[in-house]
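Changelog-adjacent note: as of this version, every example in the card shows the full chain rather than a window. The one below runs 164 residues end to end.
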Amino acid sequence: MKAKLRAYSSIFVFYLTNLIFLNILYMRIKVQLRGDNLNIVISNNSNLPIYEQIKEQVKTQILSGELVEDEILPSLRQLARDLKISVLTTTRAYNELEQEGFITSRQGKGFYVMSSGSDLIREQLIREVENNLNGAIRAAQRASMSNDEIISLLRLLMEVENDG
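Full-length structure tokens:
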């Protein structure tokens, strides 16, 4: 009887370990399709709904330049299949990204990354610059730097960046 109990407990531990492994595998999936490089990580522990996680990650990849202008995104069905989620979820994420000006739909061809010249993407990038500059200003104030010192440092950094 004890031998059977040990065997059953070993089988239970084996299945439980595999279930945990599959759950972890499900939470981190890299989607690569037709040369496109869209990296999506879905977290079951996130407070954000799945469509929002997809939307935020696509936005981040567009703003960082990982996804470039006119790059085709995976189809709604393909992304849903790869992430093992509902097509309704991917549809909602893509529709909201399109409404916000990050991607565009081309009838019969799919979804593409909008031009970085898009006013909405430009506005997002300007907001990012503002946030970073505000952080730099706060750090400069803590270092007791004058406005002239901050501006001189910014000019120097821009010269170095433009030369490199």
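Structural remarks: Strands lie at 29-33, 36-40, 103-106, 110-113.
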